[in-house]
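Ticket 4471: requesting a sanity check on a complex prediction with calcium ion. Repro inputs:
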Amino acid sequence: DEHGAVLRDLAGRELLITAGGTREDLDPVRFLANHSSGRQGWALAHAALVRGARVRVAAASVDLETPPGARRLDVRSAAELAETVAEHRGQVDALVMAAAVADFTAADRSPEKIKKDDGDEDSVPSIDLRRTEDILRHSVLDRGGASHPAIVGFAAETGGNGGSALDLARAKARRKGADLLVFNDVTAGVFGSSDNAVRILDREGQEVAEAAGSKTAVAHAVLDELAGHLPDVPW
Ligand code: CTP
Ligand code: CA
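Returned structure tokens:
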């Protein structure tokens, strides 16, 4: 890639990029999942490697070949991803949370397959859910006032009663406190496609950049902004 090959601006830097979508098991055969393919996280990993970074990818059910040179850490659930991020975030210059993380998980995973009651045609089980850890928020709080690691969040929003997609993203940027929040309007539906369009917000919700095109182009735009937030001394 022209951009990074010229730059190599991330040489000596270590990045942890989460990608894909977590799966929350309900019973031995069923799980809650989401539409994330891992392609944007993968594009970030490829772009960072081209720019000279060392890259760890925490991959939540990503069915793609590991970017050559990256260290792959496979995870399944939000809890597993939280554990992996907690283990690695102190050893990197930046944490990039591109994964779609389940907000809820089963309160009690059934050890047996949940059965429908054939004696009662109307019976429907109820599944109790509980909140998962907000890994991004937790990571921001965990670093305290330090600038290490730089932290990037992602937000896919649709507009609604709470306001426009952009309004919601601005509020989220302020709430999360990450250095950057990469926002995309998913009304058009980008999951699984190779193209993307994003706006990059700072922690005050101000737009600092926008990018559209291939996920590779978006990845480089995110890394351009991230470069300005890296700690002074490389990990
Ligand atoms: N995220 C996280 N841990 C979670 C949920 C989300 O780290 N349990 C991260 C995502 O990886 C993403 C960012 O937080 O980088 C924003 O995710 P999003 O789902 O948009 O935000 P939520 O706070 O979960 O709000 P909501 O789903 O209600 O819009
Ligand atoms: Ca969420």
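Notes from triage: The first strand starts at residue 14 and ends at 20. Leaving this open until the requester confirms.
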